[in-house]
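Project standup — Tuesday

K.O.: blocked on the structure for the chain from last sprint. Re-posting the sequence here as requested.
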Amino acid sequence: MAINAGASAIGLVGPMPSGPGIISNEKIAAIISNIHVPIDTFLLTSETTVQGIFNHYQKAKTTTIQLVDKIEKGGHDQLKKLLPELKIIQVLHVVGEESIEEAMSLMENVDGLLLDSGNPKLKVKELGGTGRIHNWEISRSIVEKSKVPVWLAGGLKPENIQNAIQHVQPYGVDLCSGVRTDGKLDFNKLSLFFKNVNSIRN
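H.V.: unblocked you, prediction finished:
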């Protein structure tokens, strides 16, 4: 459905402490095996150790790993050595001005950043799918300073996507709850989302 609506990449959500869209590793592998077009596949993993991330990837070999939480020190370099063909995208939950400095330190070790609106410090971590918008001024500053592609996420939906793109100027956008109805993907919302995105491109 997402591909037919216009998506260029599919995010496949593995086990998480919270949030929508979680599916089993077996289902992720089945979806990957049925994608026969040049679509990137992102494995969203909440694992924080190199071994845990590596083991998760072995169950669902996507083109990209999206790390939704902070990982152990030196982990990005170790992952690059273990999986040199894999793209690594680090999620950064934008909480304040300090997120700019954090982004600058992360960009040296990853293939891209994804700016989201979760809260990893809660007792039950929020690692995505919150439907909340964060401070786009901070996101824009990160985009302007970044040496790697930056995706924007957090509260994006058909009604605000044009404003978000024009304001932040991200490499790409990522969304989940903003195109769902009763927890499931809604084709009408998806179609309107991509119509609004494409109106900016044109």
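K.O.: great, moving the ticket to review. DSSP finds eight helices and nine strands in the chain. The chain has a mean pLDDT of 89.
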